[in-house]
Specification:
binds coenzyme A; Peroxisomal Thiolase, Chain A, domain 1; four-stranded mixed sheet; five-stranded mixed sheet; alpha/beta; globular; 320 residues
């Protein structure tokens, strides 16, 4: 029997209508467009409407990805939602999305790997497709981070936003799609980036807390390291990468990774300016933007690299 691969055959994304610019933020906290843009590369972020939940953003991104893939909702047999801002503690946001879309033939569940969630989701879906049991998977990263933001804390509230991105992964017998991957975690770093409350924690409600410098240092070493590892695993070298889509957390982290990896500027996708850090939604959103604007073409070798709270990090190398 020939080997099974999984390829991305459709992408979609959604950003809520409301835009919050750096100038808007400078009226809320002691900050400025100049500080935010030079330190992070962010100009604006989108904020979900009061009646919009993570599942609503996910639904819109999934609908577009299915349309782009030419796939009917009933043909999907696996739905994975990556999120750190689920609508409810339970049931899963994936089951809510399944209900809203009438995705009756899929098994749906959430995963939580913070900003690495989409990359982790791709690897899980790839394994399930390779088993031969699943054929058409949808992986969506969706977040309403504005709901867990301390809008008085200028060190965090300028960085994050809301949105969703999705990809359709389909089984194929041709050697293309996901060629190699690596995902990692290190629980020693749980305290440098976290939400300060939760249903089973002593503090039951809380906001994003971050030791920015520590996160920065880890990101600039781990992202290049794992990127090289997966490219080599596929028998390639970094110069074979046609399109690099890193997590959109901070432009200075992206630029440091580019320098370390010696990837030229024209090969990287940078969309952070328009949406800020949307955790698990960043990579599928940037992927969708690159597909739509022609930066990413069929047959390109694509490197996706993420890092986030946990600490978690991961890379996927694929032929698009
Ligand atoms: N506006 C204006 N000043 C601000 C500010 C803001 N929004 N946020 C912090 N400052 C101030 C600080 O209070 C500090 O002032 P001080 O020198 O008087 O104490 C000064 O700016 C420098 O702060 P510092 O934290 O040293 O800045 P930095 O250069 O480390 O940049 C981050 C801060 C958050 C942009 C940076 O650390 C970062 O990007 N870290 C990684 C974050 C990340 O990617 N997280 C998500 C991972 S998935």
């Amino acid at each position: 029997m020939s080997e099974i691969y999984s390829e991305i055959v459709g992408t979609g994304s959604y950003l809520p209508e409301k835009v919050l610019t750096n100038d808007d933020l400078s009226k809320m906290v002691d900050t400025s467009d100049e500080w935010i843009f030079t330190r992070t590369g962010i100009k604006e972020r989108h904020i979900a409407a009061d009646d919009e939940c993570t599942s609503d953003l996910a639904v819109k991104a999934v609908e577009k990805a299915l349309e782009n893939a030419g796939l009917k909702v009933e043909e999907v047999d696996l739905l994975i939602v990556a999120t750190i801002t689920p609508d409810l503690v339970f049931p899963s946001t994936a089951c809510l999305v399944q209900k809203k879309l009438g995705m009756k033939n899929a098994v749906a569940f959430d995963i939580q790997a913070a900003c690495s969630g989409f990359v982790f989701g791709l690897t899980i879906a790839d394994g399930m497709i390779k088993s031969g049991v699943y054929k058409n998977a949808v992986i969506v990263g969706a977040e309403t981070l504005s709901r867990i933001m301390d809008w008085n804390d200028r060190t965090t509230c300028v960085l994050f936003g809301d949105g969703a991105g999705a990809a359709v992964l389909r089984a194929t017998n041709e050697k293309k799609g996901i060629l190699s991957y690596s995902i990692k975690s290190d629980g020693d770093y749980v305290d440098i980036l976290k939400a300060t409350g939760g249903p089973s924690a002593t503090q039951t409600s809380g906001f994003i807390f971050m030791e920015g410098k520590e996160v920065f240092k880890l990101a600039v070493s781990r992202m290049p390291e794992i990127s090289k590892e997966v490219v080599e695993k596929a028998g390639c070298s970094i110069s074979d990468v046609d399109c690099f889509i890193p997590h959109q957390a901070n432009i200075r982290i992206i630029d440091a990774a580019l320098k370390n990896l010696d990837i030229p500027e024209e090969k990287v996708v940078k969309s952070i300016q328009y949406h800020g850090n949307i955790s698990s939604a960043c990579i599928p959103l940037a992927l969708d933007i690159a597909c739509k604007n022609g930066q990413l073409k069929k047959g390109d070798n694509v490197l996706l690299t993420a890092m986030g709270a946990g600490f978690t990090w991961g890379s996927v190398f694929l032929k698009f």
